[in-house]
């Protein structure tokens, strides 16, 4: 009997498009699922009858878990409903393990009920038992936070406070931010004179070009000259030079943060980039981005300067380019009038912004980042190339 299953780590059922008893055809949208990035329609791969809904609206399902059951004929509906009841009775934390894993647990004197399964459907594998025997992978150790405190040692809630459960997106952001702690990073700040860029922006903003797009274009042209800053690191043994320059740009949306991607930013003109960016932001805020529109970035830009922020540091984002770590992220502050000494000894007032780049020190070194920032600064100060 076919099942409908989520294909993410975890997904929340936003709404069922079809109801129990409906006849379905292959390719029809059946349910809307909220992932960590977007709301997605899930299509059915078989013809049949939606006999039973296992996961109702508002609840979540782990990867591979059935969310609904299909019957091929009317005679199978009763059996499917009974099977759905069995799924519900099992609950999301039923322990399942391979026979060898059970045998291995006895040999290592590991309580298998405390082992966290990493196999399909949460199945406990021999590797999980091995990890538990070395002090990792048990439910008890999984409760521990970075600071070393267990969940049972956390202080009670403050009286009158409200506890809010993370949304799927917030949980994904939190997981990524913790994951980034495993990467050795360093930060370099660089002042950039923006009078030329500001003048260009005044000329093109009426045509729908935003400052963020101009910054992304400038970054892409600089990355073309310094490909190592556009590279991604897989582990301590390998890293990849990316053939495309895809600029991911941080966007705050209701309930979280997402990074839509301007693909091949170095090859497109600022007018086409602006059009694409407008479409991406609209889709991001309606949670309609497709995976390749948010997970294909090779370099990230975060522009808090639009909010008047002078300077800030950004955290290197993992999870882009098929789970490689990006090489760098640029944090752009606001451009403000600043007194600048001239070559003739006189002082002038020019607009200046501070750019801070966080980089993966496994593949990018100080000289690499300094050279990239010098190139980026020259493009900003003489922005004629941005309109070519």
UniProtKB/TrEMBL annotation:
Pfam families on file: 2-oxoacid_dh, Biotin_lipoyl, E3_binding
KW Transferase (keyword) present: yes
Annotated SUPFAM superfamilies: CoA-dependent acyltransferases, Peripheral subunit-binding domain of 2-oxo acid dehydrogenase complex, Single hybrid motif
Lineage of origin: Eukaryota, Viridiplantae, Streptophyta, Embryophyta, Tracheophyta
Enzyme Commission (EC) number: 2.3.1.-
Domain Lipoyl-binding: 1-71
Keywords tagged on the record: Acyltransferase, Lipoyl, Transferase, Transit peptide
Family: Belongs to the 2-oxoacid dehydrogenase family.
Cofactor(s) needed: (R)-lipoate
This protein's name: Dihydrolipoamide acetyltransferase component of pyruvate dehydrogenase complex
Domain Peripheral subunit-binding (PSBD) as annotated: residue spans: 96-133
Record-linked PROSITE patterns: BIOTINYL_LIPOYL, LIPOYL, PSBD
Source organism (scientific name): Platanthera guangdongensis
């Amino acid at each position: 009997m076919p099942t409908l299953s989520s294909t993410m780590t975890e997904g929340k059922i936003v709404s069922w498009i079809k109801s129990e008893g409906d006849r379905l055809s292959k390719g029809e949208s059946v349910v809307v699922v909220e992932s960590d990035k977007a709301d997605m329609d899930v299509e059915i791969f078989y013809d049949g009858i939606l006999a039973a809904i296992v996961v109702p609206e508002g609840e979540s399902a782990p990867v591979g878990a059935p969310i609904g059951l299909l019957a091929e004929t009317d005679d199978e509906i009763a059996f499917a409903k009974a099977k759905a009841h069995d799924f519900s009775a099992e609950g999301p934390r039923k322990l399942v393990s391979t026979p060898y894993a059970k045998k291995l647990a006895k040999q290592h004197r590991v309580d298998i009920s405390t082992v966290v399964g990493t196999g399909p459907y949460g199945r406990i594998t021999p590797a999980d038992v091995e990890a538990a025997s070395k002090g990792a992978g048990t439910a008890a150790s999984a409760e521990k936070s970075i600071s070393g405190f267990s969940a049972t040692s956390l202080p009670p809630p403050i009286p009158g406070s409200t506890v809010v459960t993370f949304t799927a997106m917030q949980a994904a952001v939190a997981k990524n931010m913790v994951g980034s702690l495993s990467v050795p990073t360093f930060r370099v700040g660089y002042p950039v004179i923006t009078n030329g860029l500001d003048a260009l922006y005044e000329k093109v903003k009426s045509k729908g070009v935003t400052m963020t797009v101009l910054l992304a274009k400038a970054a892409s042209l600089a990355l073309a000259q310094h490909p190592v800053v556009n590279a991604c690191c897989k582990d301590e043994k390998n890293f990849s030079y990316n053939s495309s320059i895809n600029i991911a740009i941080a966007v705050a949306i209701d309930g979280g943060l997402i990074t839509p991607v301007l693909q091949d930013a170095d090859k497109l003109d600022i007018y086409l980039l602006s059009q694409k960016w407008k479409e991406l932001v609209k889709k991001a805020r309606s949670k309609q981005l497709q995976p390749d529109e948010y997970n294909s970035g090779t370099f990230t830009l975060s522009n808090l300067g639009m909010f008047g922020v002078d300077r800030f540091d950004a955290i290197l984002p993992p999870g882009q380019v098929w789970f490689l770590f990006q090489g760098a992220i640029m944090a752009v502050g606001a451009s403000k009038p600043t007194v600048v000494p001239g070559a003739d000894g006189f002082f002038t007032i020019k607009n200046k912004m501070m750019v801070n780049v966080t980089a993966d020190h496994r593949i990018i070194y100080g000289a690499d980042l300094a050279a990239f920032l010098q190139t980026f600064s020259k493009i900003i100060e003489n922005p004629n190339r941005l309109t070519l």
